[in-house]
Amino acid sequence: MKTDVVRVKTTGEGVDAALQAASAAAVYRGLDKKASLHLRLLAEEMLGMARQITGVNDADFWLESEGMSFELHLEVHPFLTGDMRRRLLDASSSGKNAAASGFMGKLRDIIDRALAADELGGQPDYYFQGLMGATDMEMADPLMSSATASIASWSMRNYRTAVGQETGSSRKAREEWDELEKSIVANIADEVKISIIGSQVEMIVYKDFAN
Are 22 and 63 in contact (CB under 8 A)? Predict the structure, then answer.
């Protein structure tokens, strides 16, 4: 089952309808009170993050479900060109690296950078820690082509595994692990993926309430 696609704007328009879609999906699948609350919390966190992405005018939000398994989709639509976005980020008083605190802040920063870049070079460590697939080495190669560099898939599971492996020797990794432990999304969701194809960026949050 797929819900209607709700257009959500940075002004807040559409947020209530998106949350209602999440609640309706919970009712349709017969989720109990706790599971319904968790589904709504995931939706709220995604929508809150979407409103903070630089140069995004609106986003499409919808849910897909089968049995007790849910996917929450957020597809962003930038209205700035990459060059305009980079200039805006450069003019920011805080800077994106400083602003990328907390797990959701890191997800927003990955999306911000992906939308601002002609290619995905210059990403922070937490981006490369979560990369998926056979093209990971290509993504880390400074000689990679722009075509390859504009396609990537980031995974919370990969990121969690990479950070966990480094906590014994890295203070930064221990801080990132602490962020994961405190994050609503990281604690509730089974997986979070960010798909980047050129200027098209989609985040999907996965949760199976049967587990």
Answer: yes
Number of neighbours of residue 1 by Cβ within 10 angstroms: 11
Q: What is the mean pLDDT of residues 135-161?
A: 61
Q: Is the pTM of this model over 0.85?
A: no
- Measured CA angle at 72 (ends 54, 207), to 5 deg: 130
Q: Cα–Cα distance between 128 and 126 in angstroms, integer?
A: 6
Q: How far apart are CA 187 and CA 180, in angstroms?
A: 7
Strand partners of residue 65: 70
The SS3 call for residue 102 is coil
Q: How far is CA 16 from the centre of its chain?
A: 20
pLDDT digits (tens, 9 = 90+) for 88-123: 555 554 444 444 679 999 998 888 877 776 555 567
- Composition of the chain by helix, strand, coil, percent to 5: 45, 25, 30
